Structures are given as structure tokens and as C-alpha cells.
Amino acid sequence: MLELKNIYKHYTTGEFTQTALAGINLKFRKSEFAAILGPSGSGKTTLLNIAGGLAQYDEGDLLINGQSTTTFKDADWDAYRNNSVGFIFQSYNLITHLSVMDNVMMGMDLSGVAKGEQKSRALAVLERVGLRDHLHKKPNQLSGGQMQRVAIARSLVNDPDIILADEPTGALDTKTSEQIMALIAEIAHDKLVIMVTHNPELAAEYATRTIEFRDGQVVHDSAPVEVLEPTHDYQMRRTSMSFWNALKLSGKNITTKKWRTGLIAFASSIGIIGIALVLSLSNGFDKQISSAENDTLSGYPITISKVATNTSFGPRRLGTEETTETEDRDSQLIYADKGAEEEPHENQISPAFLTYLSQLTDEQISGINRGYNSGLNLVRRQAETQVVNQDTIGFASYPTPNGSDQQGFLKENYDLLAGAYPKSEDELILVIGENNQLSSELLVSLGFAEDAQLTFDQLIGYQLKAIPNDEFYQPAGAYFKAIQGEEQLKAAYEKPSAKSLKVTGVIRGKEDLEIAGLSEGLKYAQEFATEMIELAQNSAIVKAQQEADYNVLTGESFTTEASQPESDHRMGSGASLSAAVSSITKDQLLTKFGDSDSPELITIYPKDFATKEAVLTYLDDWNKGKSESEQIEYNDLAATLTSLMGSVLDAITIVLVAFAAISLVVSLIMIGIITYISVMERTREIGVLRALGARKKDITRVFNAETFIIGTCSGALGIGIAYLLTIPVNIVLENLTEMANIAQLNPVHGLLLALVSIALTMLGGMLPARMAAKKDPVEALSAD
């Protein structure tokens, strides 16, 4: 059954080589009790280790049922130890953190025996050795004899062919030794038992064969075997420890060191706590930014202007510089920029596009505003009759939806303080500031004192009149001149053609409106602007200017380009207009007279985030299939601002997370050290597992399972503590910033951090786990 053929084994220490076995030739029967005797250092234990597959021979061959082992790999030796060999050690070598039952079942875990069968087998062998009533005790609760009985039960439970016993009674008293020897002798009736002992009396009494060793050689064999019948059908089951079994084994070890494990988990969780808090604050502030964007949609609408502007932040490069090596930043010379300016994109706001915009629904937008850069001839009669500068009084249109409720935008974003919302094109609404203020310049323009304190009732019913061009500009030969003076203005004011405008209500932005969409001043309906433009286009001064190649107000020739900003040309009085129109183009002057073909600016106010995305997609759809010159470019300033804030917040978050991650690196190193300490503490356990047939990868798996448990505890502890810390953090931030519930830990972030904790902990323990797997099982079993 078992044959050693010319076995040699050498141990080398430095330059010294010791021969432990020198050409051993032994054959063992299928069932016999062979006792190996000899002085210390004679090679007895080495022979036992080689026969059990714990140590490898240098020369010769070990035959198992006639099968040579010269080609055996690690997996074959592991399977051999698990299937065919049971070990009984002098020091018992029980795993201290496992119960009696678990110690006995460990070998079956490796061989893949079903749980039900494991229990029934374990109970049977424990009853055979007389320990049926001690199943759930730990080894330290047993006597020496009882522990050796557990070791015997463990060696028998997988029904091996060979039992190898190394001084099984060396640590026992005489009476207990006799009991153990009797039990081993009983086992030898149907198994091969090879026992190493220093006690010749026990060997003579119980063994059926004695073999004496001296200096690594056999000097006497009481019952040598001449011939063994070869067996060639020897099959072995491969061993494997599942990760679940590794978790249970390591979990039971960890429970014996609860405080140490808790402190390790807490120390490892510090980095997770820091990162979780940073992410919680980042998440909360990000939501605040998103909320702010939502609140400011009315203040920062989507805008489409005739000339698309660049709203990016930072210095804008208008051209590509072409410099030479001599053009130095420190040079005292000035060089011309040879690059070409980037031409701005001109949006073609056509009637078709305006019709396309009109198809946006009230569910998508709260309002849409079309602003025309045309001059209106406004006259008021307050104290005296005077022309009113429309810029000074904030005279502009208010946004209206495409649906039936034309006051929808005003109702959603403004509180009505007095009067009523405008219902027709000749009604105005007055917008005042958050503290009920109006600029002194505006009040003076309306005819009130600079420091006036007015009631709402004094403003309700306030009246302006828009004078048509034909009444405001009078022919003077080949030219025109604006009416001036009290009498002329009064006469124009009282004519039926003058368009009367009356203030019907006073509104103020709602308290939760972060940025008002409308500036302070008087606002009119877009229908009014459309009507006035149509009147202007049919007026005599517009027709005359269209035909003339000179300025019909001044008689001067036109410039090629305007030399003043657009806002400077927007005048309300003839005198000031004459002074300002000497340096504008013909097209600009026609626009000031009201000859506007398309809006200068379109502002779109989406309902909320979701609808804003839908509106932007709708605008993008217009551009599909069109050439670049036909496409419409728009600005979404709210998104630009929040993107900027989000980018800054992301940068801060990354920096803070990076600092917090330093503690994770420290934790990784600490876990490596702790796992190495655990390997040192569990060295004997490693040897026991290898003796039971555990593979190297199973040993690695055991320690990976331990770091997995620590990492899971660390992650759960870190996330839990971070979540609890958000409570006081939110209280402090609310007191400092008046923003509630800022720190909000995203569950997804929590889960990811828990996974990071597990991954880093297992990474930290990877090297010590590999070191554990490489330990020599013989040396591990002899470790203190």
C-alpha cells in the first residue's frame, strides 16, 4: 500500500548539509500498527512527514498503492493528505477558536463533503472516541487526553487509509497514554498506523511491528514486508476551501479578538469618514446650486440675440498671435497683433423661426419675450408736458406665454401689491424693487420729486402717451425735425392718434425669487410694441429715410459703422436724438425710428429644469440640417454660472478627497502590518490546515477573508459614523449660513466607499496572505 524506495532527505544550513534520511527502503501493509523507534535526530519525524506528504524527498520515490509520486504537484500532495492521510500530533494542533465539532469537520470542508454528511460523520467519530458530550466546547475547555481524542477523531473523519501519529502520548500521563494507545491500536485493525515514539514499552505492548532508526537509516525491522500487491486504481478528490468557509473560519478567529478588531476597523474607517463627509457636503452644495439654478431661471433665461455673444468666463482671445523669437514678454517694444479677429455669429431671426418659437407650450415655458431695439416717442403730462426717456423709466416689454393666460409669467414670479395685472395692450405694469424702491432718476423721469415717497394708489392710473412718428417728426423741407416745447408736445399729447398707456398694477418679485427677471420700471405688452412698429414702418420719416442716403434729421452722411454702443442711440427726445444720430448708420437710424423687421433679443423662460432641457433640445432641433450661417446660437447663462460653480466645487471636492485619501494609504499599510501579525499568530493553524489538505490558495483565501471582514466592518463603521456626523455638521452650517440640510450622504457614494474600504483592506492584506501560503507546513506545525 505504502512504499518508500531509496528515500534521501537533506537539510542545508549555510554551508552545512545534514542528511536526515539516507536511502530508506520500507514497505507497509494495508492494515498494521508500525512503531518507529530511535533517538532524537535519527530521522523518525522526517520519515513521517515524507510519508504524509508534508515534506518532499530529495531522491528516491514514494509509492502510494503502487503509484509513483515523483510527478506529483502541490495539488496532488494536498489531495493526498486530505483523502488518504490522517495526522495525530503530540501537541494536538487543534484550532483554538473553533469548537470540537468544527475542528473535526474542517478536513471535510476541504474535501467538499455535504454539510449534513459532515455532521453525521463527525458525530460518529466523536462518539467512537468518547467525546459525544463535548461537541461545542473549545479546545481550552478540554483535558490533554480529551484534546488528543479530538485530534484522533479529526484524523479519522475523512476515512483515510493511513494514520500518522507523532509521539501521540508524549504530553499525556501514563493512564491517559494507555487509553490513547488502545484507541490507536483499535484503529489499526483496518488501517495502516505509523507511529513515532520514544517509548519502547508502549511500542512493544501495542504495535504489531517495530522499526528502529539510527542516523537516518533503518537498523531493525521486526516484521518487514517482502512483496506488496500493486494497486493501480488509486483516485484522489481535489481539495478546495470555499470563500464562505474561509469567511466562517476567519470570522470565528476575529470573534476571539473583538476589541482589537474593532479598533483596527475604526482606525481604517477614518479615511472613509473624511471622504464621506466631503462627498456629503459636496452633494448638499451641489443640490443647493441646482436649486439656485432652478430659482434663477426667471432671472437668467435662455437668450437669443441678433449677434451671438460669448458668455464664457476668463480672458477671450480674439485672434491667433504670430510671434517671432524676438517678441519677448519682457521686451519694451509693442508688436502688432497679426491674427484675425473672430467674427461673431449673426443669428437670422426670421418670421419662420418666430413661428417655430410660438409652438412652445405653456407646460414648457412660463413666458417668452421679444425685444425690439426701436425708439418710442413717449410723452407724459405730470406737472408739465415732457418727453420721457424710455431707458430711464425701464420701459420694456414683459414676457408672455404662448397660451391663453398672458399674465402667467407675471403671476408665477411676482406678487401683485396693488391694482390688477394688465389685460390689454394699452395697460402697463410697474415693477418695484425688493424693498419697494424705485431709482430717483426713474421718479424724476416720471415727473415726481427725487425724494418722493409715493403710495401705490398714486401710481395706479399713471398715464403716458406714445406719439406716432407722423405726429412727432414734422417735415422741414427735405428734412424732418422732432417737435419741441410745451405747446407742441401738449398738442401732440391730446391728439386722438396718440396711444394712451395707463399703469394698472404694481408688482414685486416673490421672496423666493433669487434674481428678478425684470428690472425696475414700467413694462408693456408685446402687442403694443408690434402695433407701434407697424405704425412706424408706414410713417413719413421712415419712408423718407429709406429713400435718402443721408440723415434726414441732420442732413449729414452716414458712417460705415456705428461709433457708439447700441444703448446710447436709444433716445426719446428729438433734441437729444439729433445730437446722437450724427455717427450712426442708416440701418441703425431706421431702427430707432421703429422700422424693425425682427427682434433684437428673444428671452425664453422655461418652467423648470426638466422643461429647460426640453426647450434647449427644441432649439437644437431647429439647427439640424441647416448651414452654419442659418443656425441659431443661444446663451444659457444660468447653466454657465452653475457650471462654473459646479466646476469650482468639484475641484475643491477632489482636493479634499485627496487629502482624506492619505489616511486610506496609512490604513492600507496598517492593515498589511496587522495581517502579518495575524499570520504570525496563526502559523500553527496554517500548518494544521496544510496537514488537512488545504492548498496554498486556500491559505491565501483564509487571510483574504479576514481582511474582507475587517474591510466590511471598517466601511460600515465609517459610513455609519459619517452619517451621524452629518447631523451636527448640518446644525453648525445652518447657524452659519442659514442653509438647512447641506450635508447629505448619497447612498450610492456610501456603497462605493464601503466597496473601496473592502478593496483597500484586502489589498493591504494581500502580501501577508501570500507569505502565509508560502510557509512550510512542517515548520508551521512546529511553531510556538
Automatic annotation (TrEMBL):
Q: Which UniProt keywords apply?
A: Amino-acid transport, ATP-binding, Cell membrane, Membrane, Nucleotide-binding, Transmembrane, Transmembrane helix, Transport
Q: Name one GO biological process term.
A: amino acid transport
Which topology term describes how it sits in the membrane? Answer: Multi-pass membrane protein
Asked whether the keyword Transport is assigned, the reply is yes
Superkingdom field: Bacteria
In terms of CDD domains, this protein maps to: ABC_MJ0796_LolCDE_FtsE
For this UniProt entry, the molecular function terms from Gene Ontology, in alphabetical order, are:
ATP binding; ATP hydrolysis activity; transmembrane transporter activity
Coiled-coil region list = none
A Gene Ontology term for the protein's cellular component:
membrane protein complex
User: Would you identify the family this protein belongs to, as annotated?
Assistant: Belongs to the ABC transporter superfamily. Macrolide exporter (TC 3.A.1.122) family.
UniProt-listed PANTHER family:
CELL DIVISION ATP-BINDING PROTEIN FTSE (PTHR42798:SF6), LIPOPROTEIN-RELEASING SYSTEM ATP-BINDING PROTEIN LOLD (PTHR42798)
Q: What is this protein called?
A: ATP-binding cassette domain-containing protein
Origin organism is Vagococcus allomyrinae
Q: What is the lineage of its organism?
A: Bacteria, Bacillati, Bacillota, Bacilli, Lactobacillales
